Amino acid sequence: MDNHDKRRVFSGEALRTVAFPLGGIGTGTVSLRGRGALDNWEIFNHPGKGAFLPFTFFALWFRSPDGEAHARILEGRMLPPFETSGGIPPGTMAGLPRFRDAHFHGEYPLARLDLADPDVPLLAHLRAWNPMIPLNADDSGIPVALFDWTITNPTDTPFDISLAFNAMNPVGWDGRAWIGGRGAHFFGGNVNEPRDTGDAVGLQMGHSSLDPGDPRWGSIAIAALGRTVVGRQTHWERAGWFDDLEGFWRDFREDGALNPAKDDGPSPGGSTDVGSIWTPHTLALGETVTISFALAWSFPNLVNTWNSEPAVQNARLGNYYTKRFPTAWDAITYTARERKRLEHETFAFHDALHSGTLPEPILDAVSANMSTVRTTTCLRTFDGRLHGFEGCHDRDGCCPMNCTHVWNYAQAVASLYPELERGIRETDYGHNTTNEGKMTFRTLLPLIGERWNHPPAADGQMGTLLRLYREWRISGDTDWLRKMWPSARASLEFAWSPKNPHRWDLDGDGVMDGIQHNTYDIEFAGPNTMTGAWYLAALKAGAEMAEALGEKDKA
To answer: How far is Cα 332 from Cα 497, in angstroms, rounded to an integer?
Structure first.
């Protein structure tokens, strides 16, 4: 599947810098770190670099024929620095044993992790991914992360094994506040419920008292896929200090299973619960087994927290993905049912991309940057439209929204998901362009009539016309172009229009010599090659589109 001659593998200290996002278009993501830990929980409708969910991890139990049992967290050993205020939080499980050696290899949309330890007779390999299927934006927008753990017994003796997936119920957390364990003032009333759907068995985690309109309201789910024997514990012992984690570890290390939860009902005020699922297997000598887990989520209440304009500030936008998956278990159910197809189509794309002859640095740059549309840089609002920040800060998006002169540079979405890119053009020309042809270079959400009030960007406005040309050439849909054309033509003619106060090309000689706001966040005055090149290309593209639409006189 991989071209191993070109593999770039991370190990040792280099693992500290690896964060591989797992999630779909407009769903948010969870990052797989280089050691195998889950981090950057960005599923709460905003960026969350460093947002760590305690007690959420995979674990391996094994017992040899002599009867001695062992357990390991399925991660590489923790790496420095260890300087944290108050010591290392219990939710990191820092005192529990891990694997000594970890090697990470990423070829987006696929991550691989190999774990080994001289004291562990078994080998562990992880394949982590999310469905990514070009020309299928919906199935590339499933709020799920898939973890295929392969355990190999290279010895000449059999082993009993068990793999566990543990997760803390985060509902009620906004993804911003720091949490080190189960206790926090915003927790309480959390509920972990067993779920069974065909090839998926697991837990859905929600909240019993949050208002469904609360931005924090939603659910996550964990499941084992395709397994006939799955154990579940709805919540660990509701104990303080380290006793909850110690109780889990003692119980799991004994026989690879957990005793039933002692208490029923929602979690007490000020605390949440950790739920666990596990699946056992007897591993014969030389045998390899793959056990697949899934993590899913659904948080529908996306709100505009980034604009200060009264008409849109704190307006509810909603997420498109939650129309298909109102709960996290809905995403699990769909993924389990369609798993073979999703896997085949995702890996067909992966293999086609990564098995070619392009130099590794180019492949790495192209594939890694494809992840942007599936991070919190991008939104897919309830109406299905795609929108994007310029990038992300640690906790918030940067520079909203659909900035024309920044998104001029983007090419991946137009090639992989052209229907989403056409939707952005419909926003550009159906909402952001005035009758006179002035195009605002940022978008206010929701699209309720008010435009962002700022002088237009010359490079962004001309570049958007080129992107319209690109979308038309990719799709071949001249009827669609015809709908966009009146506004698009006006935006081009705005360059020499007397109604343009910035006098870009008032004499109509094809050279911009007026005041030109641009991507450097300054104004150019007079002719220059940067905006001049965008303008000349836009004139050429505009002429071709006009001729295709029967307007030879305009061309």
So the answer is: 55
User: What's the gap between Cα 175 and its chain centre?
Assistant: 15
Question: What tokens appear for 529 in the block?
Answer: 């090659």
For residues 324 and 415, membership in a common domain is answered with no
pLDDT of 163-215, one tens digit each? 999 999 999 999 999 999 999 999 999 999 999 998 999 999 999 999 999 99
pLDDT digits (tens, 9 = 90+) for 218-271: 999 999 999 778 999 999 999 988 899 999 999 999 999 999 988 889 999 999
- The residue among 423, 501, 505 whose CA lies nearest residue 462 is 505
Quote the domain boundaries for residue 169. Answer: 4-344
Contact 382, 304 (CB under 8 A): no
Asked whether residue 354 is assigned to any structural domain, the reply reads: no
CATH code where residue 156 lies? 2.70.98.40
Residue 359 lies in a domain: no
Can you spell out the DSSP letters for 67-104?
A: --EEEEESSBPP-S----TTSS-GGG-TTS--BSEEEE
Domain membership flag for residue 538? yes
Q: How far is CA 14 from the centre of its chain?
A: 22
CB proximity list for 184: less than 8 A, separation 6 or greater: 172, 173, 177, 270, 271, 272
Q: Model-level pTM greater than 0.85? A: yes
From 344, 367, 388, the end of a domain falls on 344
Q: Would 381 be classed as within a structural domain? A: no
**How many domains does the chain divide into?**
2
